[in-house]
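Section handout 9: paired folding examples.
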Amino acid sequence: MKTILTSILAILALCLMILACNVQPSQVRILDVPQFICATSVPLPTHTQPPTSVAPPINVPPFAGTPGHHLPRATSTPRPTYTPWPSPTPFIVTGGFSLGADVYIGGFDSAVRLRLRIDDLQTVVIDNGQVVTWFVEIENIGPETYAALPGGQVFIAEVMTESGLRAGQWWASAEAAQAAGINLTANMLDAVTLASGESLRVQLAAFTPMGTPSQLGWILDPLASERAGNLVGGNIAYWLTDAQPPCNTNPGSNPDIPTPAAVLPTSTPTPRPHFPEWCTWCGE
């Protein structure tokens, strides 16, 4: 019940911001697939063949009144040109992101376009429990203003306890931040708007069961009219604390983001086959 109430309160806060700050729902919702793009290697240069060799001419000396002259030699056959190396294909990850990965999203089905990151996750042991802290980073790399409530969208989703893996939703709170000794800032748990080119880095903290946090969730479309278990919202992306990244470097600022998915093929009805009347078992 507490989890559902937390999700609903986050949605209400965003709705109030939409009404009070003239924010459009399209500036809150992210409908696209999040993508981590591995930095591609530098293309190998194509080997260049040596220039075509030309034999020096034959010098014929003067003889019996005939002036000296030069006889050209045949030019060697040019070597074939090497085939260029193929261009490196970027490796795309669309889920189970590693901490510190720059995840890009938006610009296709969504009005906003963002770079998202979760990193620097730490566990602080307190009396009768623990607090997990982490940093959330958002950069608006698109032309549209983005509105979010990081403290109501990013949460701890799984904790590995002594009795096994425990799934749930442990949300950031001011009480957890104070228990961990974190200085509260104005944007830690408030709704924020980021204009084009602006970025935000904020530290969050949540009370969790004793153990190792293994998964964090991010509700990218908090206004979706759907529910995933106790969560209100949709298009939830997950970060894994033990994920092995396929590459160790981010692609840099403003990489080329590939289209998340191709257009689905048009469905066509399958014609019903005709069976003779005497075949009573046909089509079963």
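Moving on to protein 2 of 2.
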Amino acid sequence: MGERLVRNEEVSGSIPLRSTMVRRVLRSAQDLLTIYNKRYSMRFYVPPDMIAPLKNTIEIKDKTEVHHIRDVMRLKKGDIVDIFDGQGREFSCFIEEVKRDAVIIKIKEALPPKYSPPFNITLYQSIPKKTKMDFIVEKVIELGVSQIVPIITERTIPEIRDFTKKVERWKRIGMASSKQCGRTILPVISDVMHFDGALIDSKQKAMTVFASLDRDSKPLKDILRGLSPKTIAVFVGPEGDFSPREVFMAKENGCSMCSLGSLVLKSETAAIYILSCLSYELQ
């Protein structure tokens, strides 16, 4: 009985000890976050019409961004932040006031323009299953894609009639990815197109690279040899590749049939692979 009583006391005594340890860990994490915020400026996106360089003032009213600044990152008056407008401008700023529904920021200086690649890539991506498109959007934006056009092909599996909410979600992911990777120009994420319309839309590009398992496909380096196209369209198919009819239409429209190697890549892997190769070859 006595032994059992001691054990109960030990257990009850451990509760405040654990609470103290949790508080210490949380306090240490908060201290590290504060140090990080002082050394490295956080980046935030603000629409161009909310930036007034002549007044040296920026007002952030977007609920998500205000919550991120105030409640997640716990930034305060005087903290340094970088603001970009998605059209190429970026400013070094400091927080003047954090309100419940807005954050007032003062501009210190305009930052010099960042390097932008000498080419413009539009990815026509067949919509894959589940949330794989989220992953594709995030990664190809990090790799410098200029525009993403989600497309529906004959073998597209998701049976969704209204993609409005999906497109809005992909735009939010694109904005977050741009913030993270340091882009100053937001990529365009277009409404969903059907394959035939996308093929017509791609004709305005200097080159169209059509990734396919077709026997006539050539390695990307052979397609690009001796060329330096400024605008490129890239087609990546769904699980199961493009249909024979779609491959035939691509050839008829002058697309460059591209092989991605001897191994069969998943749709999300193919998009990342071909964007990486294009960036390496054309930089």
